[in-house]
Specification:
CATH superfamily of the largest domain: MFS general substrate transporter like domains
Domain Major facilitator superfamily (MFS) profile: 14-487
Oligomer: single chain
Distance between the termini: 28 Å
Main location: membrane
Helix content: over 70%
Transmembrane segments: 12-32, 52-72, 84-106, 112-132, 139-160, 166-186, 198-218, 230-247, 267-292, 332-349, 355-379, 461-482
Number of domains: 3
Number of helices: 19
CATH class of the largest domain: Mainly Alpha
CATH architecture of the largest domain: Up-down Bundle
Order of helices and strands: HHHHHHHHHHHHHHHHHHH
Mean pLDDT: 80
Radius of gyration: 23 Å
Membrane topology: Multi-pass membrane protein
Shape: globular
Subcellular location: Cell membrane
């Protein structure tokens, strides 16, 4: 099938297989978080050790996603998807039957090696299968999978862990993974262009040290503290590795991850907006449950229910936003979406000790509605400016930066929250003592400290949401510079890339 025929009749059946595979893989990303305390008890491991179930998964993603541009170009989409889905299925089965904690961590890493390929592969197939004027709708449907699956994860796992064992989490995913794999084996065909490439081993090592080091360092900072040698050591190693990786890629004729795509202004701008928005989005996903469970003392399951309407709204809006993008372009959507995001984030910074359950749900849902109008349109507009040969690099770059910026943003905002909490706690206690109202009995002092601790934590969460509001405001300012990438611009970029190759 040539490109023209495919654009007239995209392979919907094949894309559906990929969607199911990607949905299952994305759902798996957040499914385990609620179950960590139960796993900790069963295997008698400490919180810092059990964290490796999420850290290990994330590290494998951080290492493999930058390399996905190479894999997507080197191997056929059929071979790559079947390999990725096989690894994911084997990892899921192993995790369900894991006799020890070490086996469970290894199983999660095998799962991650499969799921890391899903998003870049699916995005590349969408870019090849759909013409530029219909791409917004297609990417909008893809956004439904990308956003809804991880958001449903905590609610679903909260309910399962309350009623069944944590192994059921993997048991639910396994049949879907097997069915997708079997269907793909018989029905999947090749549509993405391939070329003979050699993997530069040094690039892979530098990329692993760079992205892996930064992800691990920033993700561990909240738990271990910034003063821990392992935290600042891995961040420094990651930063040095990343600089060396970028320099090497710029000097290579056929790089593993092409940083020259940043010469396309709309791609560079979309990348900057996506980074800033990822920081704001991930911070909300961490700070909201923290506030709901710690300050308002709402159970993890009900906290998941509170965040569910936001996930549903994002899922419903994603295809609608895609259609609006095809019709009107990204600028107006992004501006309206970011105004909503900024205002709702500001309202989250004003939550009090007794804010109502449904009020919090409403503000959080409105915020997710705002974010849903920005993410995919801005990203798609940036990718539209790249020549076809650079699509694998564009998708790999976007996915990598989202992971890294999400981890960095979450770590920094949690640190801001902790520091603010400590200073607020000290000030509140000093004020209570100065006023002469401080109790003298040990029991009274313990009760006062508990009250002041909750007040101080609320202050920290409010301040972090306020910083998040400023972050969203930065993204809003950047969207005023967005221009719609039209067909002629893309043809010009094709010509430019051919000229550069000559």
């Amino acid at each position: 099938m040539d490109m023209k025929q495919m654009h007239e009749k995209p392979p919907y059946g094949m894309i559906a297989i990929l969607f199911i595979g990607a949905f299952v893989a994305f759902l798996n990303n957040t499914l385990l978080n609620v179950a960590l305390p139960t796993i900790m008890d069963e295997f008698s491991v400490k919180p810092s050790v059990v964290q490796w179930l999420t850290t290990g998964y994330m590290l494998v993603n951080g290492i493999l996603i930058p390399a996905s541009a190479f894999f997507v170009q080197k191997f056929t989409n059929r071979k790559l998807f079947i390999t990725a889905m096989s690894l994911f299925t084997v990892g899921t089965l192993l995790a369900m039957l894991a006799p020890s904690f070490g086996v469970l961590v290894a199983a999660r890493m095998i799962q991650a090696s499969g799921s890391a390929m899903m998003m870049p592969l699916l995005m590349n197939i969408m870019l090849v299968a759909f013409p530029i004027e219909r791409r917004g709708t297609a990417m909008g449907v893809f956004g439904l999978v990308m956003i809804t699956a991880p958001a449903i994860g905590p609610t679903l796992s909260g309910w399962i862990v309350e009623h069944y064992t944590w192994r059921t989490l993997f048991g639910i995913i396994l049949p879907f993974a097997i069915l997708t794999l079997v269907y793909a084996f018989f029905k999947l065909r090749n549509i993405t262009p391939n070329r003979d490439m050699k993997l530069d081993f040094l690039s892979l090592v530098l990329s692993s040290i760079g992205f892996g080091g930064l992800l691990y360092g920033f993700s561990s900072a909240g738990d271990m503290g910034w003063g821990d040698p392992l935290v600042y050591g891995t961040i420094i190693a990651g930063a040095v590795g990343l600089v060396l990786f970028i320099v090497r890629q710029l000097l290579m004729d056929d790089p593993m991850l092409d940083f020259r795509i940043y010469k396309y202004p709309m791609f560079a701008l979309s990348s900057a907006i996506s980074i800033v928005l990822s920081i704001a989005m991930f911070s909300g996903m961490i700070l909201t449950p923290l506030y709901v469970q710690t300050i308002r003392e709402i159970s993890p399951f009900h906290s998941g229910i509170l965040m569910l309407p936001g996930a549903i709204v994002m899922g419903i809006m994603s295809p609608i936003t895609g259609r609006l993008f095809d019709k009107y372009g990204p600028k107006m959507l992004a501006i309206v979406g970011l105004v909503i995001t900024t205002v709702s984030t500001y309202y989250l910074s004003k939550l009090g000790m007794d804010s109502g359950y449904y009020y919090i749900m409403f503000i959080y849902t409105i915020r997710m509605f705002g974010i849903s109008m920005v993410m995919m349109p801005v990203m798609t507009n940036g990718l539209n400016q790249l020549p076809m040969v650079s699509n694998p690099h564009g998708t790999a770059m976007n996915n990598t930066l989202q992971q890294v910026s999400g981890a960095i943003g979450s770590a920094v905002l949690l640190t801001i929250m902790t520091k603010r909490m400590e200073s607020a706690g000290a000030n509140l206690f000093a004020e209570a003592q100065a006023s002469g109202n401080a109790p003298t009995t040990a029991e009274g002092l313990a009760k006062l400290q508990e009250q002041l601790g909750a007040q101080a934590m609320l202050d920290g969460i409010q301040f972090s949401f306020f910083i998040s509001t400023i972050v969203a405001l930065v993204a809003l300012v950047l969207t005023f510079f967005v221009k719609r990438v039209t067909q002629p611009t893309r043809e010009k970029s094709f010509a430019q890339s051919e000229e550069n190759e000559k």
